[in-house]
User: Fold this.
Amino acid sequence: MKPLDPEKLHTILDDDLVWRRRELTSLVTLIGVSNAADKAVLVRSAIPLLYAHWEGFGKLALQRYLEYVSLRNKKLKDLKPSFIYLANLGRVGEIGSSPPLHTTKLLIDVLQSVESVNRNPFRKAINTKSNLRYDVLVDLLNLCGLNAAHFETEKDFINQQLCDARNEIAHGSGGAPAVDTFIRRRDKTFELMTQLQTIIVNAAINRDFHK
Assistant:
């Protein structure tokens, strides 16, 4: 596979954001021309859809970043420690719960692994747990060696306005906010998604995956 460059990575993420934004925009337009009774139903249905785009983009964007790094063909020892962790997830799970002799062998395997070239995109490691809350997002960013600081002030919004609101509706409760309130929530969500894109593309440009 031909290695991605930062510009291509940016375009891939841009294209994904465009169709997600278009879908929400179409729904908001439909809400705007609906009667009062239908508005409530449509806004209520828009809440889990907005969350779905938040989780869907977050998962895709991080997977694409790990794919980007894997196509650099760098040795694990030259990458951030998080990539050594990713490459040894199975072994890490056994270390500490195995007998000393087996644990020693596992540690030797980990030490030797750093000389291998990282070609694994680690797609399965990006597990949103079907609930991309703030803590899950931070864990995934750290797993990718990315800076999570920007999202510190957004914890309540992510947890309450995106995840909790979706979960309430999914579990048969939860009401519909005013249309203007939903539109502000939509705009804030896409702002966060765009910020995630910026973090990823900047990391690719600046080669932040290097140790």
In short: Helices lie at 6-32, 36-70, 81-87, 89-94, 100-113, 134-143, 155-170, 179-205. The radius of gyration is 20 Å.
